[in-house]
TrEMBL record:
<dbReference type="GO" id="GO:0006355">
    <property type="term" value="P:regulation of DNA-templated transcription"/>
</dbReference>
<dbReference type="InterPro" id="IPR016032">
    <property type="entry name" value="Sig_transdc_resp-reg_C-effctor"/>
</dbReference>
<keyword id="KW-0804">Transcription</keyword>
<dbReference type="InterPro" id="IPR036388">
    <property type="entry name" value="WH-like_DNA-bd_sf"/>
</dbReference>
<feature type="domain" description="HTH luxR-type">
    <location>
        <begin position="184"/>
        <end position="249"/>
    </location>
</feature>
<dbReference type="InterPro" id="IPR000792">
    <property type="entry name" value="Tscrpt_reg_LuxR_C"/>
</dbReference>
<dbReference type="Pfam" id="PF00196">
    <property type="entry name" value="GerE"/>
</dbReference>
<dbReference type="GO" id="GO:0003677">
    <property type="term" value="F:DNA binding"/>
</dbReference>
<keyword id="KW-0805">Transcription regulation</keyword>
<keyword id="KW-0238">DNA-binding</keyword>
<protein>
    <submittedName>
        <fullName>Transcriptional regulator, LuxR family</fullName>
    </submittedName>
</protein>
Amino acid sequence: MKTINRLNREFFSQDFSEEGPYAEWLERYKAIACNYARMENAIAVLSDMRDNASYIYYGGFSQMLGMGRNRKEGRLPSIWEEEIFRLIHPDDLSGKHLQELRFFHFMKHRPKKERSDYYLASRLRMRNATGDYVPVLHRMFYIPGPCDDTLRLALCLYGPLLLDIPGQCVIIHSASGHIVELEKQDNTRILSARERQVLSLIDKGLTSKGIAETLSISIHTVNRHRQEILGKLQVGNAIAACRVAKELELI
């Protein structure tokens, strides 16, 4: 299963509340995205995970990428900005999606009041108007919903890489300036120690009975761990769970 499919599962399985001042809140962040594009000459994409839609705004950097001066801004019927993805180097695009999955898990484990303090910064290569790949700074912010515990919006900004960043991809605490390299980020809290142990034995080919005997627990407990693992990793079977866990370096 592709990383982008796992992101879809993660995003759309959130328990979005239908209550609260959602429309007014969304308009406020649309204005923020538009202002980023205007003030930084960036390309700004605000993705709405509840409605599976995006709002895109073009600054001057879009012309450097050959996207034209008078592109139509506004709502797209998907959270995935395919027009932009086509310009990203294929090797960087697959890494970008995995970084976003890791960042999503990082944010879900932060207290809600702290989530607005973090953003993801990464280096990408994007094709410009002459067909050459140029270094680009990609920044991403997950925005908590106004009345629930979801990460309802994601704001992506694309602009020229004026100053290098340490590592290919980092998480930055915007208030303190503290930097965490995403490749070194501990994802182990996604699963408990016992769940990682069970999944590691599943990956080695052991049956539930074999796992129960190895860990001296009941088959019922093993099956309960299996269901928890599938739910936490948002996958449908053990094979997919092992694949996701390896990419997140859980096993």
